[in-house]
């Protein structure tokens, strides 16, 4: 909710953005594992769309939001038109070792070997991070504190979900999916999107030269247009804007 930065950019009149906190983050109620799944979240999104009278939409998933976006396409095939994944996480527990960088190799081992201790570990690390960043601008600190408003459980449960079976196979997602990834992404390597592209039946991979994990912050209007139109001209505009940033 606090991380949404699209309001800084003008969007077309026919484009409306809906964003809210995931379970256990900010003000959204926590849902414990195993009841919390990507598909249960997608059902929540479906209820929100019904409440707002929205019959057709596209979904954008950035980083850890990728699995949620794909789950929406699985759960709402008649409502979701397109999916745009931006530097999205793959199913880390089921990718070849060459796809994982050192960060995700360590996280996978933590989840497999120290799952009961993850909440305590995450709490210690989060407090250490906040202590280091407390002198930074208030808005940045708030964005870090807000996910921990309730507990660290929302974050640690998500770490486990990302590295467990998602409740569906990538091959089952039968909606057009655009995977946009910066070639200099050090957090989620571009190999992750290449892997998912090889599995998703209707996917298009767009690699952005010399851009990193936060490319969505600078290319939001172009990504929003790609999500709403799914047209090749939108990809051309995205590549042109990305070239100016590189």
What key attributes describe this structure?
246 residues, alpha/beta, four-stranded parallel sheet, 10 helices, 4 strands
Can you lay out the helices and strands and say which pair or pack?
Layout: H1 38-52, E1 57-62, H2 66-75, E2 80-86, H3 102-113, H4 118-133, H5 138-145, H6 153-162, E3 177-182, H7 190-199, E4 203-208, H8 215-218, H9 220-229, H10 232-245
Parallel strand pairs: 1-2, 2-3, 3-4
Helix pairs in contact: 1-2, 9-10
Task: Describe, in plain words, how this protein is organized in 3D.
Helices cover 44% and strands 10% of the residues. It has 246 residues and is an alpha/beta fold. A 4-stranded parallel sheet has the order 1-2-3-4, with helices on both faces. The longest helix is centred in the middle third of the chain and has 16 residues, at 118-133.
The whole-number mean of residue pLDDT values reads 87
**Shape field:** globular
What is the subunit organization of this protein? Answer: single chain
Percent strand equals 5-15%
Provide a quick synopsis of the model.
It contains ten helices and four strands. The chain is of the alpha/beta class and 246 residues long.
């Amino acid at each position: 909710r606090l991380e949404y930065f699209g309001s800084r950019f003008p969007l077309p009149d026919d484009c409306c953005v809906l964003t809210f906190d995931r379970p256990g983050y900010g003000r959204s109620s926590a849902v414990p594992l195993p009841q919390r799944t990507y598909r249960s979240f997608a059902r929540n999104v479906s209820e929100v769309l019904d409440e707002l009278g929205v019959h057709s939409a596209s979904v954008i998933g950035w980083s850890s939001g990728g699995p949620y976006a794909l789950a929406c396409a699985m759960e709402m095939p008649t409502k979701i038109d397109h999916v745009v994944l931006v530097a999205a996480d793959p199913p880390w527990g089921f990718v070849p070792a060459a796809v994982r960088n050192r960060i995700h190799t360590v996280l996978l081992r933590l989840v497999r070997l120290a799952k009961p201790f993850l909440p305590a570990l995450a709490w210690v690390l989060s407090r250490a991070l906040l202590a280091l960043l407390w002198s930074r601008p208030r808005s940045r600190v708030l964005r870090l504190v807000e996910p921990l408003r309730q507990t660290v459980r929302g974050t640690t449960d998500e770490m486990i979900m990302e590295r467990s079976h998602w409740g569906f196979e990538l091959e089952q997602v039968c909606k057009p999916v655009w995977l946009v990834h910066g070639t200099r992404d050090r957090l989620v390597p571009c190999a992750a999107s290449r892997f998912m592209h090889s599995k998703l039946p209707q996917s298009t991979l767009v690699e952005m030269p010399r851009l990193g994990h936060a490319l969505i912050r600078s290319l939001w209007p172009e990504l929003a247009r790609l999500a709403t139109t799914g047209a090749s001209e939108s990809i051309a505009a995205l590549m042109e804007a990305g070239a100016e940033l590189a």
